Amino acid sequence: MFEQIKHNLETIEGIETYPIISLLIFFAFFIGLGLWVFSYKKDKIDEMSQIPLND
Questions:
Q1: Cα separations (Å) of 22 from 12, 17, 36, 37, 55?
Q2: Is it the case that residue 2 has pLDDT exceeding 90?
Q3: 7-25 burial: b if 16+ Cβ within 10 Å, else e
Q4: H or E segment and range at residue 34
Q5: Dist CA 42 CA 48 (whole Å)
Q6: Are 49 and 43 spatial neighbours (Cβ–Cβ below 8 Å)?
């Protein structure tokens, strides 16, 4: 079964660029997420951590 899929994918021109694009999107997302997490304000994090205790 995988031989048929592999054969079909080999016949598509330019298919080798899709894994590279997917990898770049994956890394860009996680780098952006990491930057957002590390730049988040400490006082806002403390405020959100107290929400369950306020009820």
A1: 17, 9, 21, 23, 43
A2: no
A3: eeeeeeeeeeeeeeeeeee
A4: helix 17-39
A5: 10
A6: no
Rounded to an integer, what distance in angstroms lies between the CA atom of residue 1 and that of residue 5?
Answer: 7
Phi, psi (deg, nearest 5) at residue 41 = -75, 135
> What pLDDT digit, counting tens, does each position of 4-38 carry?
877 887 888 888 888 899 999 999 999 999 999 99
pTM > 0.85: yes or no: no
Total residue count of the chain as it appears in this document: 55
Cα distances (Å, whole numbers) of residue 26 to 9, 31, 32, 34: 22, 9, 10, 12
Q: Tokens at residue 29, please?
A: 């997302």
